[in-house]
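Before the break, one more example. Copy the sequence into your notebook; we will annotate it together after we see the structure.
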Amino acid sequence: MNSSPIIQLLVLAGIAIFLILRLKNVLGTRDGFEPPREAQPGMARRGGPDLEVIEGGPDADILDHVAADSEAAKALGAMKAVEPDFNVTEFLQGARGAYEMILMGFENGDMASILPFLSEEVYEAFSQVVDSREQQGLTVESTFVGVREMVLQDASFDSAGREAELVVRFVGELTHVVRDRGGDIVEGDETKIKRQKDVWTFARVMGTDDPNWRLVATGE
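Here is what the structure looks like once it is written out:
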């Protein structure tokens, strides 16, 4: 009987056992639950006031909109610390839609549709203008064209009340004419696009079940 194949198998088995022992020593073993590694220096949870993300780099969602060393950046970081799901870019996307909805609701005198998105003070100010137009027999015809420019201008956060305020500058484009009781145009030109500049402040208490931001101040 030729014993050469048996010897070869024994040699290969010995080599395999040697390699397994070496790998076990190098990699170690895992048995059951392994606790997570502790964070290394310079690493922080995404959304903390220090603007660090888990990878150790800056939070691009904040720094894409405000300067790194600004008070606005610190305020945005504090908002994320209270509400980790808060996203600045997503807020601005929502603000773009809110700008069109609120602006056109005001232009058309449809205050009921935008009431949930306005503070009491802003609602009263808008309503006074709408009521004045009606008393004078004036009607507004507007068509929203789009937002030409939108910039997050400032941010602040009251840690005691957890109230956040975000100031957004808009440059909107729309057609706008005002007609008198007889239907004659007394303001604007229906063939021209009007460029309108607005600085709006939105506010919300972070960490609550109410996701809606409300317009609390307007300016130019």
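The first strand starts at residue 139 and ends at 158. The chain is about 35% helix and 25% strand. Try to locate both features in your own notes.
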